Fold:
Amino acid sequence: MSATAGIGASRRRGSLREWITNPWAETRFLWIVGIGYVLWSLVPVAEAVLFSFNRGRSITQWEGFSLRWYTWDPTGSVLHNPALQHAIVQTLKLASLTVIVSIPLSVAFALGLHRWQRLGSGAANFLMMFSFVTPELILAVSLFLLMLNAFRVIGLGTTAQLIGLVVLALAYPVVIVRARLLSLGRSFEEAAMDLGASPVRTLGRVTLPLLWPSVFASAAIVFAFTLDDFVIVNQLSKDASSQTVAMAIYGAARTAPTPATNAIGTLMLVSSTVVIALAFVVYRRAARRRGEGMGVV
Amino acid sequence: MSSGTATATRGRRRARRAADADRGAWSPRWFWPSFAAPATIYLLVFFVLPFYVVVAVAFGTTDRILRQPVPSWNPFDWDPAILRFTFSNITHTDGLYHAAFIHTFVFVALATLSSLAIGYPFAYFLARRAGRFKSLFLVLFFAPFWISYMLRMLAWISLLQDSGYVNRLLVDLGVLRQPYPWLEGKPITLVLGLVYGYVPYMVLPLYATLDRIHPSLLEAGRDLGASPARTFLRVTLPESRQAILAGFVICGLPMFGDYFTQQLLAGSANTRMIGNAIVDSLDIPIFIARGAALILVMLVLLIAPILYYLRSTNRAAAEIGA
Structure:
């Protein structure tokens, strides 16, 4: 494959000649792959979203646009289905609680590991990364057995779901925040310490304000991921009261999906997109502001 | 005079503190470990301890009257009967779990290889050819990560129905004479579903690596007279070998634990995977111990790729740190 086409400005003229002589086909092939991949990965989702607005009951025959399955169908619509609404509430509750519990734990962990580099820290980090790559089914089943045999006080249900989601969510912020700490370096904190700030004061006045955008981004990612979690939440659920949106979609999809199933999936898609977009905007703005500040310094 | 001594002392103290700062030891010894402690304790209680419960249940017995598992907490009481039973049902060709294991390995192998075949050219395109559309393509590439897996599968359930768009298209194009029953327990549908679900995890490490290969390396290859194909084979491909292995691991690991794709797209006995066998046995109290034994077997099988992946990411982190 052509190595030079379009890589560096210095090679632009060379690549022009090459475009004429040969690798048209290779470049064209890669563009087809690129566009084809994106279409393949997103067109089905667009179709599913579209059918949430179907006037008919079918999820394969388009019968015109309507909000029937969101609002006005007296039995099937999201608005008139208490079970689906409960699932939305349960999902949002679990996602928010997971963020509230896991973010402080993992940010503190990242900070601790960044400074504490001894034997113990290696073991703690190994444990964290191990939990990150273990297949979710293994986590879910082992927590299921824990709740059933050892922690009967907790049992299955919302608390168990929250505990499992926090295990799943813990590592993402650690990875993101540690990367930020690495790129920040130690100069800011050292300056603060040289000016006589105590470790706690340095943390509160220097380190955490610098980390804030990455903490916010982690919170958004954790929220979006737990919103869509299925395996843990399903395995640790007790009854209809702990049903989430992902479980509702799964249940309906296996039996008789109606456009209302698509509608509830669309609502979740909108919420996670909003959260991720918000995080992206905040992160970008914070990064730009810091960039200007650095210029002055 | 005395103020001079004070200054000198302060200077020395500052020098010592600066030296300490370089070593990262300018706070009480317990200060930073105490930050890492809560999450570590959390993982010990809700990640490590559950593994012990799995072991205790797998090596436990089953109460015949209450019809539920009785874990053996004391390693000296461990009874290997259930584990032995499970194991022989995996290895014997007519065993309960034999087919599920074979299916899992075949489907995961096919799905990861197809993911590589699709993911590599796409990652290459993203890293080298997307040009000024690169950020747009990156956003579109990342979208499936926050789109619910269930919604993505639901989309295929409607597309693959007899009256769905896939069949309509294939019939209209003359590829098929009549609609193909995609959703009636077909292995091909399951493999396609797994590829669709997990291919982004394959692209991720490939893109990260291909994007980092320095253009000068490729130019050197070209300047030394290698053809584009040869440059790819001798420079790009060897440089991305680590990433391909990493892709296999992070793309394949979750597939091993997948049971819901099978249930949604191809629910039938001839596509059952290990995950299905595990989840099904947990539904029936008397079989829970078998589920625990299966989880244990799965963990033992997957421990090597997990450790490989952890080691390679650790090395990558160390390189970035240096």
